[in-house]
Each structure stands twice: as structure tokens, then as C-alpha cells.
Amino acid sequence: xxxxxxxxxxxxxxxxxxxxxxxxxxxxxxxxxxxxxxxxxxxxxxxxxxxxxxxxxxxxxxxxxxxxxxxxxxxxxxxxxxxxxxxxxxxxxxxxxxxxxxxxxxxxxxxxxxxxxxxxxxxxxxxxxxxxxxxxxxxxxxxxxxxxxxxxxxxxxxxxxxxxxxxxxxxxxxxxxxxxxxxxxxxxxxxxxxxxxxxxxxxxxxxxxxxxxxxxxxxxxxxxxxxxxxxxxxxxxxxxxxxxxxxxxxxxxxxxxxxxxxxxx
Length: 265
Known about the structure:
Elements: E1 3-10, E2 13-20, E3 31-35, H1 48-56, E4 60-63, H2 82-97, E5 104-109, H3 111-122, E6 127-133, H4 141-156, H5 158-167, H6 171-183, E7 203-208, H7 217-225, E8 230-235, H8 242-245, H9 247-261
Helix pairs in contact: 1-9, 2-3
């Protein structure tokens, strides 16, 4: 297994990335691109990207979005353009600068899943498939109540201490940029339903039944509107992080989905 990590300038910001198993690029495989959750980072995926890369023989790219992990600290606030900018500006530039000319399979968790869907809606020729995990395509009461509860947990100190291990001195700026984005008045009516019909790539939808940020409506809307073939893994007794809470099941299902596509990508 090989690793390459560095930073690259995107929109004049330092963005940290890690490339896993670059030797697989010679085997005509799509690149697995992992997009972390709203409070996540490259390190918070733990070894999951490596495991999936190893069993599919596909190279993998993991990166920290602006304001997270080892990337440059955020200044100011996140506006409503946050996720569209990440999908339509930052990710395309990142792939271009890293000379990733192959098709990609996007694997996005929570906010990362939403960004993956947005990217797939516009760069259809670049996307071999999308795997979304606990993502959001519309704002629900459960979503906003979940964010409010996390804010309370953060203020109590325990969550801040945990997140500081990954985001260091940028933790406060990262956390409040995320929570204020979701709790902004505009988010009550937020959705990406208009973009979903443009997605023609196969999509694997993964969600835990006990996800405190989204109901089954997040699944049904995708099934109704995405143009590409869609498959669902709905996991009982599972919350917002299926790749940890039901790792064996999720890893197996992702592997089956990806390897089933390989002859045609």
C-alpha cells in the first residue's frame, strides 16, 4: 500500500490531500474520491478509505475541505454558496491540479454526500458512480434539531475536545462556520431537488434508520428524482455514521457496488 500526502492551492487556499494506492492507477481503475462530513476531515475517516481501496483495487483520494483538518483555517462565515462552491469550483480544480483524468467514484458522508451529488449533476462525463452516506437533499426539522443538539454538546466541552484532536486551533472556526450555516434562516427551505434529475451515474444510497439528522424522506426524494440507477442500503439500529456503526455491512455493500461497475467504467 502506498500513500502520498501534500497540500495544493485551490482558490488561493491550502488544501490538504492524501492519495492512497497510487499504483492502482495503472490498472485502468476509477479513482475513489472521499468527501468528509460537516465536522469531519481526512483523519476522521480512519482506515476506511484504505480498506475500500484495497478490496476494490481502486486508487483513492481523501482531502480536507477549506477550514478543516490540515487544510487552511476558515475566515469569516459560510454562505449559502458553500456546498455549490465545493462541488462546482473546488473539487473540479482539485482533480485538475492532481491530474486525475480518470473517471471518479464519489463517496460522500453527510455534507460530503450532498457535495458529491451536486458534482455529479454537472460533471456527468467525469462520474462513474456516486455513493452517498447520511447525506441531505433537503432540510428537515429533524436536521435542524440535530444541529441544535450538537451545538449544545459542543458548548458542554466534550465534543470540542474530541474535534480539537483533528482540527487543532481551527476547531471553533470550523464548528461555528458549519453550525451557523445550517441554522441560518435560509436553510429552513434549502434543498437540491432541482439538481437531482441531472444525475445519470449509478447511485448507492446508504442511511441509518436512527440518523438524527435526516428521515427516510432523504432516501425517497433521491429515488424519485435521480435519473441514474439507484440502490439503497437502509440500516436498522444505525445512526449518522454507517461506515463505522455497521462497517462490515457497508464495506461489503460498497465493494459489491463498485466491482459490479468496473467492467463498464
